[in-house]
């Protein structure tokens, strides 16, 4: 169901869209154009249909969510519409990793998500190639996330269940298979930092510093974080800072960390408490 909340023009929207542009066959044609005349989906939605819905119910800088994204027609439509009106719309595509067809699997696509990701890449490239003068600043990039368990080990046990081997394993509270990016994006979610913001990394004293959006969040998860690393982070004038607990061998080092940020960033005790986290 489509609800018209307001009209940007005096033109009245019709209740029934029956032009050829709206039929699903047009959606199939769009996919075939991107995949060498192959369509891995049954009747994907028409780009024209989704574009009209987006124009009807949103502004040029809205966030568009498709919770059953399938072939990612919505992402394709958002990029196409941005290229036409210089909009700054963003999209979130949500899809279960349903198995792909046998044909698609044979060509390297294991799930619908794999095909959809490739469609977004190819659609973005095609839009830029067809409109080189008006799409120089068009953002066609995207990030892929999947639901998973917590980054942190489950340490809730009854006292009688502990043994010496378990205690040794609890020296680090992070699961062994988690990467820096797993930890970083988890921190971004917990702090309410947009996952689409630009990310840069630099090396200082052998440690990797992750810088989100020029200081919105700066993180270092390496061991043996030196004062030079802390100085480099403070020089970025960050809004938020996060380290890993195992980055510091002694509690005194963590206390020194907070004092350094108080001095270098001119933060109060309360600001340090809110802006610096050790996970």
TrEMBL record:
Annotated keywords: Methyltransferase, Transferase
SUPFAM superfamilies, A to Z: S-adenosyl-L-methionine-dependent methyltransferases
Positions of the DNA methylase N-4/N-6 domain: 9-95
Residue ranges of coiled coil: none
Record-linked Pfam families: N6_N4_Mtase
GO biological-process terms attached to the record: methylation
InterPro entries recorded: DNA_methylase_N4/N6, SAM-dependent_MTases_sf
Keyword Transferase applies: yes
Molecular function GO terms recorded: DNA binding; N-methyltransferase activity
Protein name: Site-specific DNA-methyltransferase
Organism: Candidatus Bacteroides avicola
